[in-house]
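Schema walk-through. Below, the input block comes first and the output block second. Nothing else is stored per chain. Lengths vary across the set, and this one has 395 residues.
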Amino acid sequence: MSAASASRGSRWFVAAGVGFLVAFQAAALAGLPRTALAVLGVHGFVVHVLLGKANALVPTYFDRDLAFPRAAFLALPSTTLGAAALSLWAAGFAATAAVGAALWAAGVAVSLATLAWTIRGNLSGAATATGEHNAHRRQVDRAANAAVPVALAYLAAGTYETVAAVTSLPTLAAAGLPGAVHLVAAGGALVLLFAVGFRLLPRFLVASPPRALVAVVLPTGALAPALLVAGFGGGPLFHAGAALEAVAVAGFAGAYVALYARSDRSRVGFHGVLAGVLSGVVGVLLGLGFATGMLAPTAGRVLAHLRLNVLGLLGLSIVGVTYQFYPPTVGVFPGSDDRTALASILLLAGGLWVEAGGRLTETGGVARLGVALGLVGALAYAYLVASAFRARATK
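--- output ---
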């Protein structure tokens, strides 16, 4: 029963995240402020999906059982209401700021406390539960495990900074909500993507990543967000953080491309992750351009940077992995198949790239067309996830 509760809780978190993805796209089409998009994309979509899958995967990877299987049901109402209220504040409804931040932070704290208590006796990740048939992966598995507590610490710091940004609490850095978004997204979410990705993706594709890239990506990815936030806005720390982040994302992209090329398997979700890491390379290069002064941070460029990293690197990677865990073909709704899944990926990725092109060239009509295509892709993705979850609920 406890395993079934944990699985249901994971699915509910994922479902909430998918709902926020649709809202993220709809808000972009409506022209909501960049801050509102950041909250919907990061605090809403990305955090919910990653916490849901972390509850399912991290205990197994650390050779543990989830300490409190029903914690998700306690945390989810708080995180969803909190993210919605924060989004309203970011869109101009000032009265919802403190309540939204407090609710979201309380729910995230429950999830983080559950994961921390679960792995408390194995924080280094030395125990990996890696079977003998995968003994050749054990070194990478241990390195990936070691990055998980770092990701959880970043998420905790970003959670505090989110509350501090909208209240009178002292902040960790003079960066406000943008600093909190970077701690949550580049720190918590991206480091967790690196860590879980290096365990999960080689098994999905039945291939091995270049170990040299693993050795580069994990430490640079772990250090970069701290430097970015500490020096936010300019200076040597900010420059170093941007450079390290670019190295980490480019290295992860290189590792995934190598896996993709080496694999004999063909699954629709693999294309989503490929589109995600390629989008991320462009996104971090834009950020590096801002940090070094090579690119002026115009409103369009900064929004393109946000969207390429949140909807692209994190979002499309999530979409691709979701289709591995919840294959479209198991769904019960009409059209639940790989063709629809591929169409959703093409619409999300193609729409994002069209949008980014429009924002970089300051062509508003092109950007809106790209967002509209991406919204259709998000709706198709939500439809397929709902179809797969419905199939599980009827068993």
